[in-house]
User: Fold Succinate-semialdehyde dehydrogenase from Pandoraea eparura.
Amino acid sequence: MSLTLTRTDLLKEQNFIDGQWRDCINGFKHEVADPATGATFASVSDSSAVDAQMAATAAQTAFDGWRALPARERARFLKRWHALIVENSEDLAKIISREQGKPLAEARGEVAYGASYVEWFSEEAVRSYGDIIPEQVGGKKLMVTKEPVGVVAAITPWNFPLAMIARKIAPALAAGCTVVAKPAEDTPLTALALVRLAEEAGIPPGVLNIVTSSREKVKEVVGAWLTDTRVRKITFTGSTAVGKHLARESADTLKRLSLELGGNAPFIVFEDAELDAAVNGLMAAKFRNGGQTCVSPNRVYVHDAVYAQFAEKLVARVEALRVGPATRDDSLIGPMINARAVDKIESHVQDALARGGKLLTGGKRVKNDVADGPNYFAPTVIIEANHDMALASEETFGPVVPLFRFSDENEVVRLANNTPYGLAAYFYSRDIARVSRVAGRLQAGIVGINEGALASEAAPFGGVKESGYGREGSRYGLDDYMQTKYHCQGGFA
Assistant:
């Protein structure tokens, strides 16, 4: 299989500011590496605060014109953008696979998923309704309208380089906001290609701007937006530590924040669960993108009565996963994003084994004729996991499944909730009364009940506790980019 593009013009390496592709002011470059080989294959602008400020200026200048467009006209731009994403989906998938490492089949799925948000919000743009409040005092008319918050800064992660930025930009533009965006340092090319298609769709200059940088320069770029009074909202997906930093540093200007942060998702298999369905759900939830997702199950609790049977079924499925690069059609698990990620996974496995865990499969780096790069790690199952292990409290962000035992419903709900995080939770049971009880007691923004694949553009995505606040997708997602205005009009007596 080749990752050669049909449209080479989608491979952009410059910033896009005020409708123009331009090098950063300092002229520096940041290298992009292929996780499958470790080799550099592109270089993008390594921007500074000056570039970030230029982008904010362009966005602020374009804001009045963009917000004044009728919602249906903004929707038409988004529909054209969506059509171009679908038309160029294969090239976009190849770019994702090349810079992020996920198998091509998964990359195609990500393109479709990201495109679904653009289509959804093109339709939601025309449904931002206000209210007429029933008359409270004679002679006064009370109205409520919704308006765009202003310039939005979108900061996105590397694990879903197209979907995460699409589900931030699309509602912002639909609401009438303008955008400055900063993609992850490891995966800027997908975001740049997406913006190239937005340009082709005719989105006006300054409405959508993107600035790239290295890890060393990211604080400078984002810091410029955090202190800029013209930027009225920050939307961020990433770690809880960075989310807290953004909240602190933006406090002086009281920006609106949407934070989709880290998780430590529990996956509970009760004794009455349909075990094959539970294994299927865990495979879908855990091994998507090699376990590099924020909703990936980190702690798998299995009832004593079915523990051995579940582990046996799971190992058979895990050992069938083929590890390799996106250039092979049969690859199901790609490389991890970089060496730091592999080091963390390996340290979690070694810590678990040192603290009483038993390895059933995997547990080591992979290096062979197929997976011959530096960042591959074998899908892993560890039994007899306990809460002294690092992987019980820290996101592994890799293809490692630890199986914890439990015997009591109240006990497992307490353990599931015993974390500062609350993004996703999963459980399997055929007891309808238990389904109602447990779903209500789990402290998470997203709950999968006898289901491991949760994502949908029609559903609200977001967490509670230290997993952040705000919701992406669904009809609620537009509200995060709008502010409510109350009108009180007199003179009707």
